[in-house]
Amino acid sequence: MNQRIIRFLFLLLLIFISVEIWAAKPPAYAIEEVNVVPMTHEGVINNQTVIIEDGYIKRIGDAKKVKIPANAIRINARGKYLMPGLTDMHVHLFSDSDFPAQYAPDELNVMLANGVTTNRIMSGNPNHMELRKKITNKEITGPVLFIASPELAGRAYYKGFKGIVVETPEQAVHAVKQCKQQGYDFIKLTEDITVPVYDAIIKTAKAENIRVVGHIGKQVKLKRALDAGQQIEHLDEYMEALLKPDAPNDGKSVSGYGIWQPKAWETMDYVDEQKIPEIVQATKQAGVYNTPTSAFLHLAFGYAMDETKLGTKQDARFIPSSEIETWRNAKERYHTIMASEERRMKFIAVRNKLIKAMHEAGCKLMAGSDTPSWLLGYGFTLHRELEHFVQAGLSPYASLQTATTIPAEYLGVLSTTGTIEAGKKAELVLLDANPLENISNTQKINGVMSHGRWHNQQQLKDMLDQSAKVFK
What we know:
This is Amidohydrolase family protein. Keywords: Hydrolase. Residues 81-454 form the Amidohydrolase-related domain. InterPro entries: Amidohydro-rel (IPR006680), Metal-dep_hydrolase_composite (IPR011059), Metal_Hydrolase (IPR032466), Metallo-dep_Hydrolase (IPR051781). By secondary structure, this protein is of the alpha/beta class. The protein has two domains: 29-83 and 420-470, Urease, subunit C, domain 1 (Roll), CATH 2.30.40; 86-411, TIM Barrel (Alpha-Beta Barrel), CATH 3.20.20.140. It has helices at residues 3-23, 104-113, 126-136, 169-181, 195-208, 221-228, 238-241, 262-266, 276-286, 294-302, 307-311, 321-337, 341-361, 380-391, 396-401, 405-411, 457-470; strands spanning 29-36, 45-53, 56-62, 73-76, 81-84, 86-91, 116-121, 144-147, 152-153, 164-165, 186-189, 211-214, 231-233, 289-291, 364-365, 428-431, 445-450, 453-456. Strands 1, 2, 3, 4, 5, 16, 17 and 18 form an eight-stranded mixed β-sheet that branches. Strand 12, helix 6 and strand 13 (231-233) form a beta-alpha-beta unit. Helix 2 (104-113) packs antiparallel against helix 17 and helix 10 (294-302) packs antiparallel against helix 13 (341-361). The longest helix has 21 residues, at 3-23.
């Protein structure tokens, strides 16, 4: 037989064996002498050993007493901290637009290497459904994926729009039913949806048992969305609800695409903070979950982050060169209409007061990055979001809840994930320092467990290095 054919067949055999090994039952692990941050309560359980079998936490106990299975892979975690994997509730992909779709797994690996073991992709498409299938079948690595529908909007409001235009209630009913049939987990709303169309979406979604998430259009307003039980992104329409009656611009403030309008920024002078308790109470009574995406909105539009600052960030090497010019153009456009620093700082301050008041009232807040908007990198920006929650007045523990227990509760998976307890899935992050002492310690990642597989620090670095190559 030709030597070239023999080499080819041997290589084919190696690939087959590798796939079989990856798809096989995951090994047992023992994470030894670790300090557990269980997220069942605020605190640390010191010097524990965690046994993991078949991708589930089998038992947790005193490191001196727990019996370790003979076949377990032992992980020395002395002095380290084990917490549940993080959830990012608002993610897009570069590969949704012009970036080659074959690189989507590399995008997901940047998230995973940052300790993000669950993601909700907003504005989904069939490629995302295929990615989820491959991750589930262990053909590729990546976080657990929840996928919202393609965006529903009242018009194609930007060049290259890939969502679904719903101008009539009939179109809305069809769109919701179609997205449910296609297997999407949520109905995602964006801009210019009229009240009749919105009401049709909500009614049909309830009948189809699929939840509605996303933006609140300027015609819909906050009260209608709260009454409908919509899960809200970006604190949309909250600023509008705080305005005094004599506010300019027909009461339209900086929610959604109002953030690009100079007239909308003038309304920051008419915010009535005394309305905050009333609006927060209405949010609590409605049981509505909010994803503020503060890191994105505050950095990009409040602090008006410039390119110099972006270039120093560790995630810069995960930004495709093809996207940089697009970002520069957007930033230049924003700078031509940018509000005064006083109004931009008030924008941040009022949002932080809302977030703190919501938390103190018992409203549900979830962490979402809205990456890769404005060149903010996957995973890295979720850690910034946790820092922004703390800046708003939440404790590190409460901030961690926004990326662990609360999204797990909203997604309906708290019985299997979101905390570290026996019987739950082993979606875990090992840290070199205590995140309850300093929320920035979530970035000191030593290892990640996802889908029953352990990725040590070197493997995570290799994962990032490999992903960085495709973004050049």
